Amino acid sequence: MKEFILIKNGEIALKGLNRSTFEDALVKNIKRRLSPILRADITKSQSTIMIEPVTENPDMDAAVEAIKRVFGIAGFSRAAACEKDMDVMRQVVVDYLADTYRECKTFKVEARRSDKKFPLNSPEICRELGGEILSHFPHLKVDVHNPDLVVNVEVREKYTFIHGNQIKGAGGMPVGTSGRAAVMISGGIDSPVAAWTMAKRGLVLDAIHFASPPYTSQRAEQKVHELLGKVSKYSGTINLLVVPFTEIQEHIKDDCPEDLFTIIMRRMMMRIAIELAKRQGCGAIITGESLAQVASQTLLALGCTDAVATMPVFRPLIGMDKNEIVEISRKIDTFNISIQPYEDCCTVFTPKHPRLRPTLEDVEEAEKALDMDNLIKRAVDGVKIVVIDKSLEV
Ligand code: ATP
Ligand code: MG
């Protein structure tokens, strides 16, 4: 017996986008995501995307796990594909979902037949197969209103598909349908969650990380690779740009007022991030900032940082509490990496008493002490690019 994965159009979030652009991007992403696991024929037929593995003994568990991480799918089904013959269907409906029946108390059969030449109509198929299930699993009861399990039977052109309850998908929009953005990534909890959240809305990601050796270690950068590796399971390939930031931080420390160190540093990060984002063809910056979480994330501080931004800055976590962010980081499996203790450049040279109410005039005046253009140029020229997860190229 063959197994398919079926994705219904009704389960795809289509709002506001040209349907076929959306579906084509989705099919492309599914193909790429499955390619390390199995080869598959993917066809669109009667409002369903049908994934048919063509590899011998395909690893369907791995395929299901991969599909769960493809944005643009609200839900999907793993289905048995069998001959369009009632004897075969009776056998398959009992065998294929046997483990599930044992865990349930109530069920109903829902049959659809797009092949109108099939000798039984839908109510007859339901009756026949429902009776067969009950005769093998006498503990079950039929409940047509609120069953634990819906056994779906679809008699289509080539096969009959039999499947149980739907598996929840990752939701969102297919990566690549919303353009490209650069996420400012630290080793912390927040920025990987911000990256994931925006990839979910269909953005291809680049990532920018500021490193300050020798104050920050190679291990801290390695941590960023690992975090992005987790995110790339959802987003596809991420180009990571590592920016040398030591010189700039030392200049700010030496030449600017201590209590403005953090805000000036963040404006420098933003200027460089935007320069790099433009080179990469990105239309926005993403950060993991959350209002009032730390001194650099007050309304005034965010305003000072945004004053140097010449493209949209997305802060998807701005209204979230830490525990809500942690919940997502656990779900996407970044939490345990994020909590490993390695220095981030943001914690190097931080003043004991950062100014909580910086004015833009004071900050701009203080920045005059810096050789801005040259510092930015040297940082940009020193960028190192690391490709995270080549096999998942978007
Ligand atoms: P995170 O958990 O993402 O580190 P945080 O609460 O520790 O966030 P900050 O360290 O103040 O907050 O950083 C706020 C945001 O600035 C981060 O979410 C990230 O987008 C960006 N950022 C911080 N450090 C770096 C870095 N070394 N390289 C690139 N971006 C950074
Ligand atoms: Mg941080």
Write a brief caption for the model:
With 394 residues, this protein is an alpha/beta fold. It has helices at 19-34, 60-67, 86-96, 98-103, 122-136, 190-199, 218-235, 246-255, 261-279, 299-306, 322-331, 335-338, 360-367, 372-381, and strands spanning 2-8, 40-45, 48-53, 73-82, 106-113, 141-142, 149-155, 160-163, 167-171, 180-184, 204-211, 238-244, 285-286, 313-314, 384-388. Strands 1, 2, 3, 4, 5, 6, 7, 8 and 9 form a 9-stranded mixed β-sheet that branches.
Describe, in plain words, how this protein is organized in 3D.
The chain is α/β, with parallel strands linked by helices and 394 residues long. It has helices spanning 19-34, 60-67, 86-96, 98-103, 122-136, 190-199, 218-235, 246-255, 261-279, 299-306, 322-331, 335-338, 360-367, 372-381, and strands at 2-8, 40-45, 48-53, 73-82, 106-113, 141-142, 149-155, 160-163, 167-171, 180-184, 204-211, 238-244, 285-286, 313-314, 384-388. The protein contains 14 helices and 15 strands. Strands 1, 2, 3, 4, 5, 6, 7, 8 and 9 form a 9-stranded mixed β-sheet that branches. A 6-stranded mixed β-sheet has the order 14-13-10-11-12-15. It is elongated, with a radius of gyration of 27 Å. The two termini are 32 Å apart. The relative contact order is 0.12.
Global Rg: 27 Å
Q: Spans of 5+ residues with little confidence (pLDDT < 50)?
A: none
Q: Averaged pLDDT, please?
A: 93
* Total count of helical runs of at least 4 residues: 14
Structural class determined from secondary elements: alpha/beta
Estimate the strand proportion.
15-25%
Please tally the β strands and state the result: 15
Order of helices and strands: EHEEHEHHEHEEEEEHEHEHHEHEHHHHE
- Hetero groups bound? adenosine-5'-triphosphate, magnesium ion
Ends: how far apart? 32 Å
The biggest beta sheet is recorded as: 9 strands, mixed
Tertiary shape: elongated
Helix content class: 25-40%
